[in-house]
Amino acid sequence: MTIKETELLNNLRDESILTLNIYNNFRTIFFETCSDYITEWTNPTLCKFNGVSWITLKNIEGDFSWKNISNTIQLIKNVIPSLTFNEAELFDEFTIVKTNLQKNQKIKSFNTLDEKWTYVFQTADIDGDFPNLKIVVELLMCIPGSNANVERIFSDMNNLWTDDKSRFDVKTVKAMLVVKHFFTEDCSGFHDFLLGNKKLLKHIHSSEKYLPKESKTVILNTQASTSNTC
C-alpha cells in the first residue's frame, strides 16, 4: 500500500466511512477489473477483425476480396443474428464495385472513408441501390476507430468528481456527463429549456443530487458484504 493510500485510508477511517477490510476488498476488485479489461482487449479473438480492412479500399487487389466480405458477413451475423443478407445479390454488388475500382483509380484521391464509399456508390454501373453492400459498409463504419471518446468521458468524470465534490450522487454525475456530451442545444437554448421546466429546476436546487455521508457509508459496507458473499 502506498503512502498516499495509507493517508487517505486513515482519513476515511477517522471519519468512520471506511475500514481496512472494506478498502482491501474494493482494492482487489479494482485491480481484478483492470486485469480482466486488459486481458479482454489483448485477447487473440480480436484478430477476427483483421478481415474487415477491405473497407478502407487501400488494397483493392489484396483486401477487397469475396472471402473477406464473407467473413465480415459472418462476424456481423454473430453480433446481429436477426440481420439477413441476400448473398447472391451481395456477390453481384461486390463484383461490380471491384471491377469499377480496378478500372478507375480516382478513388485514391479521396482521404476519408465516407468520401470513398460515396464515390463508389454514385459511380458504379448498377440498377438499384446496393441494398446489401451498403448495410455492411454502414455497420463497419459505426465501429469506433479508437477509445478516445471513452477516455474523454473518464477524464471529464474525474474533473466533476473531485475531492471537493465527492458527495455527488452517481446518478448526478452520470446526468452531468450526458448533458455535456450528448445534448445538442447551444447555451442559450439550454438555458431557455431549463427556465421552462420548473420541476427540473426544483430538482436542481434540491439536495437530492448529493449523497448523504451516512448513506455513502451504508453503500460501501453493503457492496463490501456482497463481494465477500460472492
UniProtKB/TrEMBL annotation:
Q: Which GO terms describe its molecular function?
A: protein dimerization activity
> Which residues does the UniProt record annotate as the domain HAT C-terminal dimerisation?
128-181
Listed InterPro entries: HATC_C_dom, RNaseH-like_sf
A Pfam entry, by short name? Dimer_Tnp_hAT
Residues in coiled coil: none
What is the official name of this protein in its record? HAT C-terminal dimerisation domain-containing protein
Please spell out the taxonomic lineage of the organism that makes this protein.
Eukaryota, Metazoa, Ecdysozoa, Arthropoda, Hexapoda
